[in-house]
Amino acid sequence: MAKTTPLEFIRQVRTETAKIVWPTGRETVMTGVMVVVMTTVLALFFLAVDSFFNAVVKALLSLAK
């Protein structure tokens, strides 16, 4: 494999970086909002599941008394 000089490496990196399609500000905000919404929905879902199992375990433990 041919060795690349540091200067050639920097040129290659700049060439590849120029090919990147960066998201617009609106796309970034919308993605951030979706992350917050989905995180909230999942948190509520897991809260409900955890509360359900907590109630089941408490009911089972109360039978053991």
TrEMBL record:
Pfam families: SecE. The chain crosses the membrane at residues 32-57. The keyword tRNA-binding does not apply. InterPro entries: SecE_bac, SecE_sf, Translocase_SecE/Sec61-g. It is found in: Cell membrane; Membrane. It is a single-pass membrane protein. It comes from the Bacteria. Keywords: Cell membrane, Membrane, Protein transport, Translocation, Transmembrane, Transmembrane helix, Transport. The keyword Cell wall biogenesis/degradation does not apply. Belongs to the SecE/SEC61-gamma family. HAMAP family: SecE. Essential subunit of the Sec protein translocation channel SecYEG. Clamps together the 2 halves of SecY. May contact the channel plug during translocation. Component of the Sec protein translocase complex. Heterotrimer consisting of SecY, SecE and SecG subunits. The heterotrimers can form oligomers, although 1 heterotrimer is thought to be able to translocate proteins. Interacts with the ribosome. Interacts with SecDF, and other proteins may be involved. Interacts with SecA. This is Protein translocase subunit SecE. It comes from Sphingomonas citri. The gene is secE.
